[in-house]
Amino acid sequence: IPLGGWESARNVRFHNNYIERIREPAQLIATVQPGEWLQLYEDTNGPRQAYASQGKLYRRTLDGLAWDDVTNPAVGTHSDGEWQSFQYGTSVVFNNGIEPPQILYSNAATFVELPNWGLVTQVEGEAPVQLAVTCRSIRLFGVYMVAMDVTIDGVRSQNGVWTSDPAIIDNVTQDSEMPSWDYASPATRSSLNYIGVEYGAIVDGLELNNNFFINTRESAHVLQLVGGQFTFANRKALPYGLVSLGAVVSYNNFHFCIGPSTIFIHDGSTVREIADARVNRQFYTNLQELGNIRCTENQEYKEIHALFDSVVGRGYLIYNYADDNLSFGDAT
What we know:
- By secondary structure, the protein is mainly beta.
- The strands form 8 sheets. Strands 3-4-5-6 form a 4-stranded antiparallel sheet, with no helix packed on it.
- The protein contains 1 helix and 28 strands.
């Protein structure tokens, strides 16, 4: 079959000029609550795994034979939100968009609420006040954390971008080493600013080439370190946005993105739509739940995997960035 002669492919990958059957999904999480989000990370003991169910957070034991419930006892049972996570030094941070972000230190028994989260000066010279704060998305940007779509004391700012004070994150092991979020204090570099409301609500954001890109459904904006009173500023960079939380992943100095109507990649300045009309039609026609897309990179095969719920069950889209091709598969 000549190059470009394939009309469709399912449950196979194109790799090094061969067609390879993709392995069937294996059950990783058993005997505990069904998993909603899995994070691979490293702590002081080596490679670890943590995952979120609808209401609990778990960490795999060091022997790999079981899962410990490491849910914050102050929370008890989490609300069923859209989970996301990232490694923070030798710790791991989880967030569901409904409750405050949670952090699990390397040898801690349970998660705790992200220290200093929501502590903001109200009167100069007085101690900061604890505000009730949540965010739909929180990501790492170098030595900063970036919270997006922020709700403060019940008031939601879908265009809000809250950045932490910078911190040395290599070996964070206790609360005292965590950064401040006090954007009102002149003693910190924390800041709170906004994307223009004319661009719509923030969907998600991610670092790329030492820049941080914040995405609405219609556009992408660069967060820039400017110093001074506001520390960060933003500008519109691209007229392309994201369809949902989790619909972006970094690879080889590019972002792979799933937008509301097209699948594309960009390097921060140039955008290329990688799906033709047939692939777009198949993907968006079958896409069942816009808020349930998760993108990850498979470095071994030079692939991006986009997991999504379709009308026929959970499926995935594979983009091979070495050979520049797309294929579909079944995850259930």
